[in-house]
């Protein structure tokens, strides 16, 4: 009940939910159910209980599993990880509730987000951290193609989604569910990103090909 109490009357509120567990290891499965699926469901149901008319919720490309290529919102959900499964199931619950309530829900799947201050196991922050500190890092062959999305561009999209809801507040957004894919539309080889980091930090020691790709990693 704490979230509902925080919201109070939510009838003029837009909720943006970005939280999830970043631990995608097999040992992190319990945290995924609690912090990705469970927390997301609490935010969704608590918002609906307080009459929130507009929700913007972060999904993940992990919902699509190993599907490859240019993927539009019509791509089928085939998660290969517990994280992707939790996001996919939360989206199913969200769509279900959108059909039952007077609410507009924007569910967005960003491509590979990066930017200043980023920490954790993703490619760019882990490679930059190793390069800055002169530590060796085992990486894949780097042939994968990825759409790298700068964090400020993602924030700009979220701001536009909020403004859209506010500008239509008088008439109200039409109830329903919209699925968005957010990216640049440009494919970049992972190895090219590592090249740039090596150029910036000549002491970098990336052992290319020393690490196998993930089992459900798309080309």
Please describe the structure with a list of short key phrases separated by commas or semicolons.
alpha/beta, 219 residues, 10 strands, four-stranded parallel sheet, two-stranded parallel ribbon
Question: Can you give a write-up of this model?
Answer:
With 219 residues, this protein is of the alpha/beta class. It has six helices and ten strands. It has helices at 2-7, 29-49, 82-98, 123-133, 151-167, 190-200; strands at residues 14-17, 54-58, 104-110, 112-114, 136-139, 145-146, 148-150, 176-182, 188-189, 205-208. The strands form four sheets. It has a four-stranded parallel beta sheet with strand order 1-2-3-8, sandwiched between helices. It has a two-stranded parallel sheet with strand order 4-7. A two-stranded parallel sheet has the order 5-10. Strand 1 (14-17), helix 2 (29-49) and strand 2 (54-58) form a beta-alpha-beta unit. Helix 2 (29-49) runs parallel beside helix 3. It is elongated.
């Amino acid at each position: 009940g704490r979230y509902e109490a925080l919201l109070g009357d939510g009838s003029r509120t837009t909720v943006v939910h970005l939280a999830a567990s970043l631990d995608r290891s097999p040992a992190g499965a319990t945290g995924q159910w609690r912090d990705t699926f469970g927390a997301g469901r609490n935010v969704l149901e608590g918002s609906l209980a307080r009459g929130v008319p507009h929700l913007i919720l972060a999904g993940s490309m992990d919902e699509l599993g190993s599907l490859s290529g240019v993927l539009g919102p019509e791509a089928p959900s085939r998660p290969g990880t517990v994280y992707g499964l939790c996001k996919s199931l939360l989206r199913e619950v969200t769509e279900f509730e959108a059909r039952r309530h007077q609410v507009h829900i924007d569910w967005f799947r960003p491509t590979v987000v990066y930017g200043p201050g980023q920490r954790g196991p993703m490619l760019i922050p882990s490679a930059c951290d190793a390069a800055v500190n002169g530590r060796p890092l085992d990486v894949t062959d780097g042939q994968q193609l990825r759409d790298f999305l700068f964090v400020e561009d993602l924030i700009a999209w979220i701001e536009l989604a909020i403004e859209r809801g506010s500008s239509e507040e008088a008439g109200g957004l039409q109830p329903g569910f919209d699925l968005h894919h957010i990216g640049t539309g440009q494919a970049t080889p992972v190895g090219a990103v590592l090249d740039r980091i090596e150029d910036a930090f000549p002491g970098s020691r990336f052992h290319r090909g020393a690490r196998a790709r993930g089992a459900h990693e798309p080309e």
